[in-house]
Amino acid sequence: MPADDASAKTAKAKPAPMKFGTGLLRDCWYFAALSTDLKAGKLQRYELLGEPVLLGRTRGGEVYAIRDICPHRAAPLSAGKLVREADGAESVECPYHGWRFRTDGVCSAIPSLVDGQDVDPSRIRVRRYPAAESQGMVFVWFTSDPRGQGEPDQPPPLFPGVVGGGPKVVERMDFDTHMDHAVVGLMDPTHAPFVHSAWWARSAKRQYEKQKVFEPSEAGFVMVRHPRSKANRIYDILGGQPEVEITFRLPGMRWEHIQIGARQLLALTCLTPVNEGKTVITQLLWSDHPVFVISPLIKPFVRKFLHQDGDMVNLQNMGLKYDPPLLWLDDGDTQAKWYQQLKREWTASRAEERPFVNPVKPATLRWRS
């Protein structure tokens, strides 16, 4: 192929970058639920990335995800029941006409058929979404393949500090905003004194200059391990000399791994788009620190933080509905810029069928908060 033809092919393959606040990343794992949320035999309906998803667990313990629309008359399969086939396999039975679909999405039975009718049920399918459990969490893979046939080429993420059994704290909240705005709000280092002002945290009257070192990490970046912030009194209850490492990874996971001597604490936040206008924020805390014996007393603080962010999202929406241009500054908005660069590179690398090249470079950022 001539060189000019090859370059034209590459240029054609490269997709147009998504405008900030529109579009959702594909070919990646999204947090969907805790393992304990899925009971054997129970069918649960979710909306994820604007798609209706039936998420369930077979009586044999296997987690599965299929499109929650029967292709016959569009009834939600999650309103049906899990039944056992003659061969021992389990299928989801539609509540409308009893069509059955195995957990891989293949139709196994159409009760209305009679002898002589030339219909092969196995040629009928509903979309299957690859689902996997990891560290007590359930992740679902959303492919960019329009036929829905793309398979994961990587395992679901693993997080440091998942210790002490299940999470000590779990809080969820719906934010009425696109995932991009939720992610940028999550990693924004300068809003805390104004949005999260409280007796246990910093205030706008007490701001400090911060200087943090960042490095690229898998599909994201990391604020390298550093001593705790003196402005946040919540660390005081941990005692000792906590050291913190903060990591962001596409499509929308941010975690603080805190080391206090031999003890650990992991504060993981997962962002899951319901659709382009709503994002679920799930906050999870694991720790083997003895202070978490009183975890019921800690939950209200986590809940209050989420509600403070949610209130600000509602205020921000008053301006965003006019689609204004957004002004990004250095260094406080550098992480937001990195996120946009990561999204563009992830999408381009997938479309061009080449390895992902992390665009983030090591940097030292400074800001006041």
From TrEMBL:
InterPro entries membership: Cholesterol_7-desaturase, Rieske_2Fe-2S, Rieske_2Fe-2S_sf, VanA_C_cat
Keyword Plastid set for record: no
Domain Rieske residues, every copy: 30-140
Keyword tags: 2Fe-2S, Iron, Iron-sulfur, Metal-binding, Oxidoreductase
Signal peptide: none
Domain of life of the source: Bacteria
GO molecular function: 2 iron, 2 sulfur cluster binding; metal ion binding; oxidoreductase activity
Family annotation (CDD domains): Rieske_RO_Alpha_N
PANTHER family according to UniProt: 3-KETOSTEROID-9-ALPHA-MONOOXYGENASE, OXYGENASE COMPONENT (PTHR21266:SF60), IRON-SULFUR DOMAIN CONTAINING PROTEIN (PTHR21266)
Name of the protein in question: 2Fe-2S ferredoxin
